[in-house]
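WARN no homologs supplied; continuing
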Amino acid sequence: MGKTSRRTKAKKKDFNKVKLKVGKKKPAAENSTSTAFKSQSVYIPEQLQSQENIPAELLTHRKQSVDDLLSHLNHFSPTFRCQALNGLKEILSNHQSNKSIDGMKICERVIRSVTDVDSQVRKASTSVLWHIFSVVPERQISPSFPLILSHLFCAMSHISKDVQRDSLKVVDLCFEFFPNLVCSDENRLNLLQHFIELISSKQGERLANSRVLAMNLSKKESAIAWRIKVLTRLSALLKNTPTVDPTNTVNFDNKVNW
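OK structure emitted
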């Protein structure tokens, strides 16, 4: 009996709750993590500038910015894409002398629309490109000109005849504003090859180097009218081509047999 009582007293002693004195906090455990933090205000010098010195964002009459309009160019609806291009045209026409407009950024996004399946989108993109080309100098557009030509060549070799027809309008813009870039050696040969592709086709696999004039081009215009349009641009290309030294010989791998 005596041993049992001693064990019970020892057990109660081990699990007794320690009573703290009044006003004294319980000490933190050894494995506790401190979650306290300090905050301090940060002052940016730009915040102290007056609102008059900050340039206002360029917006359309629908309160859309350039970034908003560029994001709408990827919309699945042709109506949205066309409205975005018209909005860009509005900003460019109303703020031609504004240097804050990044014309090359807009151009690199709009040039993709020359291969759009919707005719109104292609028409609007050509109008926007005219506003960009008319204000951007040749030296500024020169680094991005290969990108512009690559999209133009995609339009000229597109499976849709309507896209091919509208691509000639972009060719006219390049001739009008950047004839030196178009008529450089590399660009001239590529453009010449695409002109040939527009009015002719390969005769067959056996005759790899033989070509014939394309006949059934489109129901909207005759084959002769289409050839006149292409050959007119080809004539402009040859007129702007610098004089070639007759002693230099050029080897063309693809021989064209009419």
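The chain has one domain: 59-239.
OK
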